[in-house]
Amino acid sequence: MSEPSIFFSDVNERQGSFLRRTFVLGGLTTLGVTALVGRLGQLQVIQAREYATLASNNQFNFRLVPPPRGLVKDRNGVIIAGNRPSFRVLVVRDETKDLDQTLDLLGRLLPDTVDRRRAIIRDVNAAPRFSPVPVKSDLTWEEFARVNLYANELPGVMADMNEARYYPFGGAFAHVVGYVAKPNDRDIQAYRDRNEDPPSILFNPGFRVGRQGVEKALDEQLRGEAGGNRVEVDARGRVVGEDVGGSKPAVHGEEVILTLDSDIQNRALEVFGQESGGCVVMDVRNGDVLCMVSAPSFDPNLFVGGVPSKVYRALADYERRPLLDKAIYGTFPPGSTFKMTTALALLDAGVNPAERVTCTGGYFYGGRTFRCWKRGGHGSMDMHNAIKNSCDTYFYHMCNRAGVDRIARVAEDLGFHQVYDIGIDGQRRGTMPSQAWKANYNRKNPNPDSRKWYPGETLSVAIGQGAIETTALQLATMTSRLANGRKAITPRLIKSIGGKEHPQPESRRDLPFPQAHLDIVRAGMAAVANDVTGTAYRASQLGLGDIQMAGKTGTAQSRDYGSGSRGPRDAVWSRRDHALFVAFAPHDAPRYAIALIIQHAPAGGAADAAPRAREVMKVALLKDPDMRARIERPLPPEAQGPVEAGEGEAGNIGGLVETAPAPQAPAPRAPARPRTATSGPRPYLAEPPQ
């Protein structure tokens, strides 16, 4: 069968068909070439700059660099939270051929990465593309050299040096300063909840944010401003060079200076030993917090690179709660340290301080006997001796003349049941019982009698027991206000941020107490520490010349003992009483106040808390140039000769004078012997607030 063919009846018809096809194809070709030339002209001439920029952007990547975190220093410029160089090894997922194989090889060089393999894979997979992820920080020099030696055999692995957060004093400042850790989902969600875009630096694996204390409260100021390195990459995104001129340096975070003193802080943690509790030291003239310690503590350096889960569980499950800040978050009954508050309420109610109550070891009221801590009783007590001897019976007998509402009002004037603006979160307000408090507390109870306050309940409140709860910071504030005598001092923790002085959180108002009432209470505190029959006499002797403390011991029940007022001393830790001590010094010209609480102490306030508070107070006094000058003043001429027999110890603590070119009047001589219970209140000289 022959192939089909086309026959043209006319030769011109065949030629016309060919010409039409040629014209169509030629026109289409010309149109395509014109369009291509026009597009090339647009790209190379009109949009040349735009595409040159895009090409440059593809050639160079801008990698964020975490900024150096701002330093945190104490009042003397000692660094308590700083940065240190740290060798680390990083992995870039997109530059590895096989992540599992790379980690296997890396595990031979760094065996401890094997245990964290699952966490490493999770972090690497969650990181942005071409973003290096730290696998291990704080490499030793040998480990750093080993990784660099085999770097060619480890695609996607690099070792470099960065700055890591460092806390040189370990646990001394762990609670108040806090620590840093990797950002988590909650940090990112917090921005989104405020309808804000999370900063890109939060997704950088090497970035850290503040956790707890100052690190958390001032995270924005300490964080600084992220920088970036402009690096040249190939088609696969691998780094082949760095454009130094196009890089942007990171901006260092702001420097924060606290009112704390590192020497006092370290000594406070040291004296606690294995005990649990909190300690706060304040300057009674301006409210500066010199020490705020919680014990036992923990090493915040463990949290910087990620604390192992076993270590964290051990800290969290330990019954003495090392992760809890007991200075501002832990609440405890104040015990007998509250009796100065009750005494001021009694004076405010018109009670005569000379009126006496006979203590026989207890007080019968409402069908039950409220025991005094001294089983045999204290005998006849007035207010001064009741404070000095910490007589429960006196306050049982007198408290309802003031009433619980008046006691609560005086307590709040002295600083209880308050949250202070010290710049960090986590404070507890505590509990201050009153008639309104009980009515609100039991508002859902259908029994109307449950919302009524009974006079028998006031007896427990009067000695710092019952529902009342407070913090070490509130106790220190109370003691500071009693010592100052004029102003309602408020605590201040942050001294300056970025070189700018941080002001007091609020204006200091006048205390609403007559000077005569304060003198009575402070004289009782002076007798506690300096009268041989005072409850803290032996534990309160500073041995610093004529400088003496005024204080008050406290032993607070941690549970109900029925008819007894004290639990067994050999009980297990969680069933022991709490020991407390508050004091200020010097008692004749106050400078520093201290409140120290020992949770579930072995003995009590006088045996456990007072000796520790004395040691901390001595450091504060010895660091004060004025106090050192007072201690080191030479004895007056009449005291430098031989001591005659029978003169006792007067020459050892006699009056002292300043050595200066101009004549100086000798200072008052200290008493030859501590005052007795019958010597009455001692004159009190308050130093004006600054």
Blueprint of the fold:
Layout: H1 11-46, H2 48-59, E1 60-65, E2 72-73, E3 79-91, H3 99-109, H4 117-126, E4 133-137, H5 141-149, E5 157-166, H6 174-177, E6 179-181, H7 185-193, E7 209-211, H8 213-217, H9 219-223, E8 227-233, E9 239-248, E10 256-258, H10 262-272, E11 276-283, E12 289-295, H11 301-304, H12 309-317, H13 339-348, E13 357-359, E14 362-365, E15 368-371, E16 379-381, H14 383-389, H15 392-402, H16 404-414, H17 435-441, H18 455-462, H19 472-484, E17 494-497, E18 500-501, H20 515-530, E19 550-556, E20 578-585, E21 592-599, H21 605-622, H22 625-632, H23 637-640
Which properties best describe this structure?
alpha+beta, 34% helix, 7-stranded mixed β-sheet, 690 residues, 5-stranded antiparallel β-sheet
Describe the structure.
By secondary structure, the chain is an alpha+beta fold. It has 23 helices and 21 strands. The strands form 6 sheets. Strands 2, 3, 4, 5, 10, 17 and 18 form a 7-stranded mixed beta sheet that branches. Helix 15 packs across helix 18. The longest helix has 36 residues, at 11-46. The chain is elongated, with a radius of gyration of 37 Å. The chain starts with 10 loop residues before the first helix and ends in a 50-residue tail after the last helix.
